[in-house]
Specification:
Length: 271
């Protein structure tokens, strides 16, 4: 079970689930937030497990001793079954928010699966992130009465945040990816080019979180957004000094503080 938990990509699974839950609270989903969080969690588990299962042979070639399938901490067959089971459970849990919201969430999850199954090796890798993260606010708001789409600014911010995370996440495994045939968009750029694009996209997302919500931001929201900016500076410093894993954790912190600022600001996701 410990190996299975490690194979789910624990950090991003928790981060994306928490961010989706915060968006649900901001949108006013009330008790429906529980359904949103449950669906998001199971969907992310399916994505993380499928990633480790699909990449098991490539991870062995790359000598990835941080991967539980490679070290034998969990059987590949168990991770495969867990991924498929979680994907199946994502359907009814998403439908608790209505078919419109469920459709948005399932497309997002399937985009992530498409990335795992092969698009990560192509220039379309970033499109999977744009689509998957851009649809998360829609999953939340389409479950509200009247099934409204989220405002354009939050969709744009979420998509940019996901795309930026993609570029930063690829830095740590860049050499291994290139050796094993992964030539996504970040790998087709130089190290510094990928870093600059990733940080630039994350900064643009923070900008939309600043100017998008109606009204002036509260002091608490300003503090959180400044923490996000500081984390971005640390992302650059960590990457340039060879601490790419720390840069990835700081990227998740950037996303979390930006979304938390919406909650502290007391606004909604209404148009």
């Amino acid at each position: 079970m410990r190996g299975l938990l490690r194979a789910c990509h624990f950090q991003p699974t928790v981060a994306v689930t928490a961010i989706t839950g915060i968006l649900a609270v901001v949108a006013g989903r009330g008790l429906g937030t529980v359904a949103v969080v449950a669906a998001a969690l199971v969907g992310q588990l399916s994505v993380g497990w499928s990633n480790d299962w699909v990449d098991r042979d490539r991870d062995r070639l790359a000598g990835r001793l941080d991967k539980p399938i490679v070290t034998g901490a969990v059987a590949a067959e168990m991770v495969e079954r867990a991924a498929i089971t979680a994907l199946v459970l994502t359907v009814p849990l998403s439908l608790l928010s209505g078919w419109q919201a469920a459709s948005a969430h399932l497309v997002a999850v399937l985009a992530a699966w498409a990335y795992n199954l092969g698009l990560k090796r192509t220039p379309l890798s970033v499109a999977c992130y744009l689509l998957a993260f851009g649809l998360l606010p829609a999953f939340v708001t389409l479950g509200l009465p009247g099934h409204p789409w989220p405002p354009a600014w939050v969709t744009t911010a979420a998509a940019l945040m996901g795309a930026g995370a993609h570029f930063v996440n690829g830095l740590a495994d860049r050499d291994a990816d290139l050796r094993t045939g992964v030539h996504g968009l970040p790998q087709r750029m130089s190290y510094r080019g990928s870093l600059l694009v990733g940080v630039g996209l994350l900064a643009a997302a923070l900008f939309f979180f600043c100017v998008g919500p109606p009204g002036r931001p509260t002091p608490g929201a300003v503090v959180l957004l400044m923490i996000g900016v500081s984390a971005l500076v640390a992302v650059v410093a960590s990457s340039l000094t060879g601490h790419e894993r720390a840069a990835w954790s700081l990227t998740l912190l950037t996303a979390a503080t930006a979304v938390a600022a919406l909650l502290v600001n007391g606004g909604t996701l209404g148009t």
